[in-house]
Every structure is written in C-alpha cells, then in structure tokens.
C-alpha cells in the first residue's frame, strides 16, 4: 500500500497539471486572421484593397469557406508570448509593439496598379509567374479603376499606412514528417478529378478552390487612399513640381505634338509631403483585434499535390474520401495546366505595359494675344480673332527701328508703323485639354484679364501731334487707341530663360521678352527680332 501511495501521487499530480494546462490554453484567444492560413485564394478575383469601391474590408480573393490545409489544436500549442492559442501546423509571432510603415505610389495604367497591389500578395514556389499579367484583373475594384484610367486618362496618387502586429506561417517543412492533414472536402473534390486532363472538370475545380493557397499572413491594419487627377491637370502639376520629368513628344490624339511625363523621373523627383489629386477611394483592412490579414504569401494550387501533403493518402482512401485509382502526380500536372489556361478560360486579357502619360500640346488657357507673324496666326483647334493698330509715330526726329529680316506682320517705316495681333478670346477651349503658361521670362498681350501668375503692365506711346493718322480695327489687346496709344501686357519673370516652355510649334509664333530675356519655346529654330518705335525727346 505504501508503494502504491508513494508512486501514484506524482502520476496523479502530473495528470492534474496536464489537464489544467489544456484547460488554460483552451481559454486563450486565437487571432482570427490565423484561420485564413490554409484556405484557397483566387488570384484573378483577389484585390488587397478589398471589394467594391468604398467598402474596403477582406480581400475578395480569399475563399474563406474553402479550407485546403487542415488546422488542428491537439497539442495545446501557444504563441511565442503564450498569449494566444495557435494551430499545431502554424507558427505565430505577435509583436509587442506595432511596426508602422508608410508608402506613396503613383499609377496610371493597369500594370502600375497591379504592381502596387502585388506588394501585398507574394507568390512563391514553382511557376510563380503563371498569373503575373492577369492577377487581380477580375476584381470589381480593379475593373472600376482600370476603366477610369482608360476612359478618363486618370493618374492616381496613393498613400498607405501599415501597422504590422504579427506574422503567422504554415509549417510547410513539417508537412511530411508530422503528417499534416488535408481538408476532407478538398480531398473529396481532388480525388474526383479525372486522371486525364478535362478542361471543364479542372476549370470547375479552380473556380471552387481557387488558384493558390494561403501559407503565410501578416496581421495588423492597413489603411490607404487613392487620389485621382485628370491627365491634363497631372501633366500641369508635373510641369511645376518636377519639370525635368517633362519632354516634348510626337503627334497624339489628332494633334501634331504632345507632352510626355517620364513617370520614373517624376516619382523619384516628387518631394516628400507633396501630393496631387482628390480623394477617389479609401480602404481599411484589419484591426487591432488581428481579425484580417494585411499581407499574404501564396503557393500555387498545384503545389499541394506534392507527395509531402499526401502522407495520409491511405487514411483518406480508408475513410472513403479518396479512391485507390487516384493518381496524385497526374492530377497535380493537370491542375498546373488548368492554371496556365485559366485566365483565357475566364476571358481575362493579359495586361500590356502602361503607355506613356501624354497630353496633346495645345495653347494655354486664358485670354491673351500674340504679335502676328508674317506667316499668319497659329493654326489651332480654335480661331484667333485678328486686329491691328496703326501708329502715326513722330514725323520729326523719328527713331523707329526694326530687324531685317523681320517676321512680324504689318508695315514699318520711318514715321509710321502698323502692328497686327492674334487674339485668344476664349479662356478654355476644351475642358479635357487644359494647359497653363509655364514659368519663364516673357510677356503676352493682355485681353480682359491676365492668366494666373502674370503681372499686368503697359506701354504708352505719345504719337504724332499734328495731323495724327492713328487707326485701329478688329480684336485688339486691352488698351487705349486714340491719338496716342497704350497697350497692356501680361508679363512674368518667375523662370530661367534657358529652360524650355512647351507651346505648339507647328506654326510660327512670337513671344515678347520680359526685360529682353527670351525663353526658348521648345524648338531649335527660334530667333530674336526687334521693333522699336521712336518717341520725341
């Protein structure tokens, strides 16, 4: 009796302790996002920003009702800090304090948008590039933004803040030695597939179970906002913020010239704290309760047909979930074939590279005038109303001068001069093709009001007093046209003269210099010419 009393006591104590530990672990929470590990993922329909615009939330590619890798809790396993209950097949490391990171990106086509999304969804393993040119393309949010970029020419600026609170990973390296199980529903469907490839059967299988499997998740929160800007407004923004990113380009959209933005140059030159566009969509994924994954790592669905995931095949056959005729390797190869053809089957076209960010090169917005060249007013999408001013300058001691040759329309003599004008009287010709005057050192004629960033000024001529023959006709710059002449100008001196400004150059035009500094007009055949009207001294 004494032997039994001595020896049985520690055994009884050990049993009580074990039961207590099991009960304690059962009461601990499990981060719900861990339950996304081992489920199917459809990479065509997925989008890390969530579902419909404005809703955010869980990635629609996550097939929460399609578990492929089974999770169990037989070993009373805990997280590294002993605060969470963790599946036997998973390793989970929570962070004691959040790691926060922020990012800023731009996108203007489906390629750059998909690149932004793929930063939150990594695909590893063999044949990881199968869906590179079609991933996310069937998601509602992708289609909506894609339509905005193609139909409106929108350019987007995106901000995103991530708070990483932990990481959970399926222990793929222990699948074979520990005999990890597959989900019975998945086993049943997989074992029902024909050993020879049948497109309908295998495509239905992908529709049901997805193209990939989630094997690792980051937990925490991810918040982001996409800002939209029209293409013309974006190019104008780039011209003022990162002017080195602009260059002249060829014909575009029926116009003889265009302006291109090098997006790599723009992104690298964009200063911290600057932004463009107005809010288009926002999203929030996850919370401090670790209920949603904020980043995924996937393997292709064909990977799960590796023998290391089927160590319990005999058990599956014995339970009736599989049959002895099942050819695992052949079915796995067929699944890969189906994956390679899945996008075409789903009528999802492959992405092509993003095109250039281009806008037609048009005359800047605003009302103003230019001196008329001998070749006539510029040929543009609108008509320039014309006018002239005849100066009866001083007959005695006149000091009129002009360049020779002179490309300025009009008549020029010792004591009389006639100047012709090309006037833009409509401020905005096409709201979809807006463009502004750029920084420089030059003047234009004033008409009603000066465009933004110009300063008003005028020149007054005291013309001939005797038998004055002044006359004027047509549309003229703002000013006074009687026996004397006053013409108003709009001038700016906020740029350097050796930096090109972008203006249509298919026809000749003339800019008046500010303080005799003449900016280049993005053409290599510009010349400086001079007209001087003498005054009595």
From TrEMBL:
Pfam families: ApeC, MACPF
Entry-linked InterPro entries: ApeC, MACPF
Keywords associated with the record: Signal
Domain MACPF, first and last residues per copy: 20-359
Extent of the signal sequence: 1-26
Name of the protein: MACPF domain-containing protein
């Amino acid at each position: 009796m004494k032997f039994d009393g001595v020896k049985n006591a520690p055994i009884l104590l050990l049993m009580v302790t074990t039961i207590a530990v099991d009960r304690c672990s059962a009461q601990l929470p499990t981060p719900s996002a861990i339950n996304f590990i081992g489920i199917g993922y459809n990479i065509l329909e997925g989008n890390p920003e969530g579902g419909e615009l404005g809703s955010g939330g869980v990635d629609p590619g996550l097939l929460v009702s399609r578990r492929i890798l089974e999770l169990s809790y037989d070993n009373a396993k805990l997280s590294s800090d002993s605060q969470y209950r963790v599946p036997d097949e998973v390793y989970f490391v929570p962070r004691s304090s959040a790691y926060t990171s922020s990012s800023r990106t731009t996108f203007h086509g489906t390629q750059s948008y998909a690149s932004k999304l793929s930063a939150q969804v990594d695909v590893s393993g063999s044949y990881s590039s199968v869906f590179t040119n079609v991933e996310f393309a069937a998601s509602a949010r992708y289609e909506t933004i894609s339509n905005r970029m193609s139909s409106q020419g929108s350019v987007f600026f995106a901000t995103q803040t991530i708070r990483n609170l932990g990481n959970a990973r399926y222990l793929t390296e222990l699948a074979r030695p520990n005999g990890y199980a597959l989900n019975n529903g998945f086993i049943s469907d997989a074992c029902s597939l024909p050993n020879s490839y049948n497109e309908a059967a295998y495509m239905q299988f992908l529709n049901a179970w997805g193209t990939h499997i989630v094997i690792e998740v980051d937990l925490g929160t991810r918040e982001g906002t996409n800002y939209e800007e029209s293409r013309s407004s974006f190019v104008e923004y780039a011209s003022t913020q990162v002017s080195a990113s602009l260059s002249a380009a060829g014909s575009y959209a029926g116009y003889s010239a265009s302006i291109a933005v090098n997006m790599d140059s723009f992104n690298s030159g964009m200063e911290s704290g600057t932004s463009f566009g107005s809010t288009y969509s926002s999203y929030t994924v996850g919370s401090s309760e670790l209920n949603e994954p904020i980043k995924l790592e996937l393997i292709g669905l064909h990977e799960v047909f590796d023998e290391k995931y089927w160590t319990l095949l005999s058990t599956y056959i014995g339970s009736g979930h599989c049959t002895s005729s099942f050819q695992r390797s052949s079915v796995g190869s067929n699944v890969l074939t189906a994956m390679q053809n899945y996008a075409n089957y789903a009528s999802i076209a492959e992405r092509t590279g993003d095109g250039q960010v281009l806008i037609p090169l048009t005359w800047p917005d605003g009302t103003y005038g230019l001196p008329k060249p001998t070749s006539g007013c510029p040929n543009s999408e609108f008509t320039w109303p014309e006018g002239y001013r005849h100066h009866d300058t001083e007959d005695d001691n006149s000091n009129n001068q002009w360049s020779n040759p002179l490309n300025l329309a009009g008549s020029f003599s010792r004591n009389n001069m006639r100047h012709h004008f090309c006037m833009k009287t409509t401020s905005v010709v096409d709201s979809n093709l807006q463009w502004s005057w750029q920084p420089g050192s030059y003047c234009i004629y004033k008409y009603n009001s000066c465009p933004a960033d110009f300063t008003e000024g005028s020149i007054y001529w005291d013309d001939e007093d005797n038998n004055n023959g002044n006359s004027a006709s047509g549309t003229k710059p703002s000013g006074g046209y009687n026996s004397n002449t006053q013409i108003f100008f709009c001038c700016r001196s906020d740029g350097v003269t050796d930096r090109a400004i972008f203006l249509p150059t298919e026809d000749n035009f003339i800019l008046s210099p500010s303080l005799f500094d003449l900016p280049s007009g993005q053409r290599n055949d510009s010349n400086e010419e001079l007209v001087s009207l003498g005054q009595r001294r």
